[in-house]
Task: structure prediction
Amino acid sequence: LNDKYVSAFEAISKDPNQLLSVVEEGGVLVGCFQLTFIPGLSRLGMWRGQIESVRIASGNRGKGLGRKMIEWAIEECRKRGCGLVQLNSDKSRVQALKFYESLGFQATHEGMKLIL
Result:
């Protein structure tokens, strides 16, 4: 395992605004995601949840696990007082975009990144 993953995991696990979650089926890890709780100044100081690194093992896709996982993440955001949940997905991942739209997500903003 690359040491960079270990360092990232350690940093995430120490931060109370980070949550790493996994999905197991029959004792086998089949999915994971990272949920970040972000305080903000906009929208009257509203907190938001950021869903990232969503993965479902290829042999387990199409079983509804991803839907259950994201629905669980949304509920966790509600419990923590978030006013919205956001995520990013590569524009080329058409099926993933359709999946998130089926869960109620809308492409309301244009995201931009600068690789450093």
Remarks:
- The longest helix spans residues 65-79.
- The chain has a mean pLDDT of 94.
- The radius of gyration is 15 Å.
